[in-house]
Write a structure and sequence with these properties.
By secondary structure, the chain is an alpha/beta fold. Helices cover 34% and strands 26% of the residues. It has 21 helices and 25 strands. The longest helix has 18 residues.
Length: 601
């Protein structure tokens, strides 16, 4: 019998809450064999990340109580002295965290952060460590590795930062790699590259992998066995193929049912609500069909012509402009009231800058933007404030969008009072109505942001955006970091509000399966330009541009029997930096179908 690399028995974790101890993980047991990938699956709060932190002994003993047994290569990690544990952590066991920017020190160069591990754990000299750092960066497919050692984390894209974190985790040739949600906020193409990279390195190094995620599509792509956790308990364990073919526990079935499937909208001509899944029982509740909300015979709520946004790069003693970042280059689009136009593409393509430029949170260089017929570009301060009443923005991270010291009722009431739409008393009544409209209770207005879950905080942000009764909502990655069930609830809420108020949505996202579900039309961005735009059905069922096809091919399929061997590519989006005297070429488009336009290369 093959001896497991890691064996966890009856692991339980409790956190101190005042004078009480609150159990968050109860009696979890599983093994990981040599070269095996085990996925630990569940939604936020299920205890999966706490389980990983317990294995690494990263929980504070003053606030956390961990019991059970964690055997790694014959040693009980929970019984080891701290110094002995430090020699294993980062050495024999590597860990990748969800957000690479919080894992990397922003004021230290990448090379320093890798060589530090090599000097400390492997006793290398500085020269040896630098040579090994270059080798590690090349191993994780970072081009021009030697020249990038002296760059800071801010100079890398999200996908490349995650590769750096993987390089650090692999620096000491670990026998076990713990990957905690390493692809959650990444674009589909970068996610595909990272998953393939982990699989390739596992084959090369003979590692075992504990992969923590809530994305069942990712589980199908990478894991040999799967452990499902729900409210701190292990509810189902089995091979990934068996679990996908015949899940036994209601919660596992609910997770699988909640995964948006690319291609599920084939033949449908309008957005469709997600089925509502009761996570505790696995029951799927039917949803009402969507109505046709697009006001085709009325003037557009948003019209953008040749929008250009560039950021100057200055250098030298005189701070001369040596070049520019061409973030948005010649973007034109139109949006009717009651319509959803999705803007899709990888990080760095310019989609978020486009959304911010439309309402002048970022100042564009040139172009024409009209919201409800009013000129945004030439508007003065007071006129712009009036225009912004018609167009509100919902950001990706609701926690950063809310003042942590302000009760959410005050946060929602603030724009109402600031724009003189109601007095304080009437504003509070309106806040209660808005909270109930987004599926919360009016009494929740007295709570602070930290007292809400991620999905509830996003509902609060939607309520605040609706406070000024806008006609246009710009949703910038508003659901990308949410669990699948919460994501479905928020998308359904947006569709309900669109029907009720006739809202127009500019929906900015990299999640192709969600985009397919919610959109009337889709625009694909690459290097600051729209390369394909048209009706959702035409773009998804008959993509014409190579980049659009690449985006769709990268979406993981929630079926372990259809795993594809992808050719790993280290290609990123090319740099949008251009010399100061650069003149953009005039772009030509061909019509592939009615309203379906594709950029000619």
């Amino acid at each position: 019998m093959i001896k497991p690399i890691l064996s966890i028995k009856d692991l339980s974790v409790a956190f101190r809450a005042g004078d009480q101890w609150r159990n968050v993980v109860r009696d979890v047991s599983f093994d990981i064999g040599p070269r095996e990938t085990v996925a630990l699956v569940g939604e936020s709060g299920s205890g999966k990340s706490v389980t990983a932190m317990s294995v690494m002994r990263l929980l504070s003993p003053s606030n956390a109580r961990v019991t059970g047994q964690v055997d790694f290569e014959g040693q009980d990690l929970l019984a080891l002295p701290l110094q002995a544990m430090q020699s294993i952590r980062g050495n024999r066991i590597g860990m990748i965290f969800q957000e690479p920017m919080t894992s990397l020190n922003p004021v230290l160069k990448i090379g320093q952060q890798i060589t530090e591990v090599l000097v400390h754990h492997r006793g290398m000299s500085k020269t040896q460590a630098e040579a090994e750092a270059v080798r590690l960066l090349e191993k994780v497919r970072i081009p021009s590795a030697k020249s990038r050692l002296n760059e800071y984390p801010m100079n890398f894209s999200g996908g490349m930062r995650q590769r750096v974190v993987i390089a650090i985790a692999l620096a000491c040739d670990p026998k076990l790699l713990i990957a905690d949600e390493p692809t959650t906020a990444l674009d589909v193409t970068i996610q595909a590259q990272i998953l393939e990279l982990i699989k390739t390195l596992q084959d090369e190094e003979g590692m075992s992998v504990l992969f923590i995620t809530h994305d069942m599509g990712v589980v199908a792509e990478i894991s040999d066995r799967t452990i499902v956790m729900y409210r701190g308990e292990q509810v189902e364990t089995g091979t990934t193929v068996d679990i996908f073919a015949g899940a036994k526990h209601p919660y596992t079935r609910a997770l699988l049912s909640a995964v948006p499937q690319l291609g599920s909208m084939t033949g449908k001509d309008r957005p469709l609500r997600f089925p509502q899944v009761e996570m505790a029982t696995g029951e799927i509740r039917p949803v009402k069909p969507t109505k046709d909300t697009v006001k085709r015979d009325e003037p557009s709520i948003l019209k953008v012509d040749n929008l250009v946004t560039r950021f100057p790069i200055k250098a030298g003693f005189l701070r001369r402009t040596i070049g520019r970042i061409h973030a948005v280059e010649g973007v034109s689009l139109e949006l009717k009231q009651g319509e959803t136009l999705s803007l899709v593409g990888e990080s760095g393509c310019g989609k978020s800058t486009t959304g911010q430029s439309i309402i002048r949170l970022t100042e564009p260089v040139s172009g024409d933007v009209r919201i409800d017929g009013k000129n945004v570009i030439t508007a003065g301060r007071s006129e712009l404030a009036g225009i912004r009443r018609e167009a509100q923005m919902i950001f990706q991270d609701p926690f950063e969008s809310l003042n942590p010291r302000m009760r959410i009722g005050e946060a929602i009431a603030e724009p109402i009072v600031a724009h003189d739409l109601a007095g304080q008393a009437d504003a509070q009544k309106r806040v209660g109505d808005l909270l109930e409209r987004v599926g919360l209770s009016a009494s929740m207005g007295d709570r602070f942001p930290h007292e809400f879950s991620g999905g509830q905080r996003q509902r609060v942000c939607i309520a605040r955006a609706l406070a000024l009764e806008p006609k246009l909502l710009i949703a910038d990655e508003a659901v990308s970091a949410l669990d699948v069930s919460v994501k479905a609830q928020v998308i359904n809420l947006l569709l309900d509000l669109q029907e009720e108020f006739g809202l127009g949505y500019l929906f900015i996202s990299h999640d192709m399966a969600v985009v397919e579900r919610i959109s009337h039309r889709v625009a694909v961005m690459y290097l600051g330009e729209i390369v394909e735009i048209g009706p959702r059905q035409a773009v998804f069922e008959n993509p014409q541009h190579d980049y659009t096809k690449r985006l769709m091919a990268a979406v993981p399929i929630a079926d372990p029997t259809r795993r594809q061997t992808r050719r790993i590519s280290s290609d990123e989006i090319k740099s949008p930096f251009r010399p100061a005297d650069f003149v953009p070429p005039k772009r030509l488009y061909t019509e592939a179908g009615e309203g379906h336009f594709v950029q000619v290369s």
